[in-house]
Amino acid sequence: MLTLREKLTTRMLTKTAVLSVIAFLVMYIEVPLWFAPPFLKIDLSDIPALIGAFALGPMAGVVIEMLKNILHMAIKGTVTMGVGELANFVVGSAFVYTAALVYYRKKSFKTAIIGMILGTLVMTGIAAIANYYVLIPFYAKLFGAPIEAYVEMGAAVNKFVADFKTFILFVIIPFNLFKGVMMSVITIPLYKKISHILHR
Fold first, then answer.
1. Does residue 60 come out as left (phi exceeding 0), alpha (psi in the -120 to 50 range) or beta?
2. Distance (Å, rounded) from C-alpha 32 to C-alpha 187?
3. φ, ψ for residue 20 (rounded to 5)?
4. Which of 42, 93, 118, 151 is 20 to 30 Å from the Cα of 184, by its Cα?
5. Average pLDDT in the chain
6. Which 8-state DSSP code applies to residue 48?
7. What is the pTM of this model?
8. How far apart are CA 198 and CA 8, in angstroms?
9. What per-residue confidence (pLDDT) applies to 199?
10. Spatial separation of the C-alpha atoms in residues 114 and 190, rounded to whole Å
11. Is the pLDDT of residue 121 over 90?
12. How many CB atoms lie within 10 A of CB 165?
C-alpha cells in the first residue's frame, strides 16, 4: 500500500505528465506577429508550463518545458538537430521558473504579476543573448545561408531593421516581450479557474 508521501509524489508526477502532453499539443498553435519574419511565431506551450510552475513549483514548470520538447522531437521530429527545441526549453524555462520562484516566496495575485513581469524580462534577455551569439549564427551555418539573409527577412516586415544588431533589438526583444505579456494575460484567468483541480 502506498504511503502518503508516495501518493503525493505519484499525483504530482501525473499532473506534470498531463500538463506536459497539453503543452506539447499546444505547440502546434502558432501565432505570427506583424513585426517579425515568418520563421518567428509564438506558440502557446508556455502556458501549461507556467500553470504547472505556479501550482506544483518552479521545477515542475522546467520539467514540463523539457518533456514537451522531448515529445516534440520524438513525434514531430526536428529540422534543427535539436537546437530549436533546446532554445525553446531554455527560454521557456527562464520564463516559468523566474515567475514561479517569485510567486512561491509569498503566494498572492500581486507576486504572481511581479513574477510574470520579471520572468518576461529574464526570458527576453536570455533570448536576445542566445539569438545573437548562438542560435541565428548556428541556423545560418546549418542551412547554408548568411546571417544577412535573416536580417533581410526581418527588414522586409520591420522598417527598423538595418543590420543584425537592430534585428535583435527590434525583432527578437519585442517578440519575447510580447510573448511574455501574451502568456501572462492568458494564464491569469486560466490559472484561477483550474488551480483548485491541480491542488487537489
1. alpha
2. 19
3. -65, -45
4. 151
5. 91
6. H
7. 0.90
8. 12
9. 63
10. 17
11. yes
12. 11
Tell me the C-alpha distance between 136 and 115, whole Å.
Answer: 29
Nearest Cα neighbor of 8 from 145, 157, 200 is 200
Is the backbone of residue 91 left (phi > 0), alpha (psi -120 to 50) or beta?
A: alpha
Grid coordinates given for 165: 544588431
DSSP 168: I
Do 49 and 98 meet the contact criterion of CB atoms below 8 Å apart? no
H-run or E-run covering 42: strand 41-43
pLDDT for res 91: 95
Domains, the chain? 8-28+43-198 (1.10.1760.20)
Residues in the chain: 200
Whole-number Å distance between alpha carbons of 189 and 88: 24
Q: Work out the average pLDDT over 53-68.
A: 95
Residue matched to cell numbers 548562438: 134
